[in-house]
Amino acid sequence: TSEAHSNFDKIARELEQDTNSLRIKKLIYYVCKGTWENDSNRLAGLNIPNLIQELIQTYSTLNQLTSAITSQVQTLNRQAEYSIIANTIISKLESLYSDSSESTLVKARKNVKANHPVESGKQQSKPEQSIVEIEQKEIEQKEIEQKKRTYDVFDLRLEVMKYTNPLRAKLLLFSVLYHPFKATRQDWYLIRAQTLDDLLFQVFDSYKTIEELESKLYSMAKCLDASDENTQAASAIAQCMSRFYGKAR
Fold it and tell me: Which three-class secondary structure state does DSSP give residue 249?
């Protein structure tokens, strides 16, 4: 546990000492809170270890973290600049997600509670509750890892393409993962930058149950243009992916 705490402190210190530390604070705060902070006094009062703590408690896998940060960067005006900041954050935090036994991430979560108390009472939670939540997330993570071993991306892609147009599937999956697709140059660029395989695996990794995924697929299908075609795509994706969640249809 001292090793995990030391690693957490090392990462936090490196981010604090980075030449872009202010932008790092801004982006992590934006990902955690959903609001953009420009007030210099407020930013100066933010504690990077606390921000990292909130980040890793919210996103239990590296893929979830990467998707969340990428999604928020895409809403900014200076995307190129903040894409570099995003890569810095992800590369630094990656080691917290790398250990497969009792992960470094979980150890860090346990230790940071005692050593980096959160700043506001609103964020404070009972230690007993946080430990239970951490243990539950660790169990859920093991279940996800077991499911990944049964995940056959090639077969899944072929099956999805039997029942729906692959581009339609990509547009819907993109909307579920990031934001409702708009036919802008930026969104088309992002769609082309990812394969159907990539998007299918990201939703599989992001949604722990088929019920959660199915609900999100159908609700998003109704929000997009050509809702009938998107609903058909949602049905096809949910049906094809259900077996990977251990629920045959």
Answer: coil
Domain residue extents for the chain: 2-141, 150-245
- Is the Cα torsion angle 172, 169, 164, 156 positive or negative in sign? negative
Tokens of 11: 């990462």
Tell me what pLDDT residue 63 has.
83
Q: Are 23 and 48 in contact (CB under 8 A)?
A: no
For residue 247, give both structure tokens.
């629920």
The H or E element containing residue 215 is: helix 210-223
**Distance, CA of 242 to CA of 158 (rounded, Å):** 15
Phi, psi of 104 (to 5 degrees): -55, -35
Map residue 7 onto helix, strand or coil. Answer: helix
Residue 199 has pLDDT above 60, yes or no: yes
Place of tokens 């930058």: 193
Mean pLDDT of the chain: 77
Task: Work out the angle between the directed axes of helices 127-149 and 104-115 (0-180°, nearest 10).
Answer: 170
What does the buried/exposed string (b/e) look like for 170-180 if buried means 16 or more CB atoms within 10 Å of the residue's CB?
A: bbbbbbbbbee
Alpha carbon 185 to its chain centroid, in Å, reads 24
232, with CB counted inside 10 A (0-12, 13-18, 19+), is middle
Token pair in block for residue 218: 């159908």
Instruction: Report the pLDDT value the prediction gives residue 138, as an integer from 0 to 100.
Output: 60
At residue 182, φ and ψ (nearest 5 deg) are -125, 140
- Say what percent of the chain tops pLDDT 90: 17
Structural tokens at position 126:
């009972």
- The predicted-structure confidence for 210-249, as pLDDT tens digits, reads as follows 999 999 999 999 988 888 899 999 999 999 988 888 643 3
pLDDT score, position 4: 60
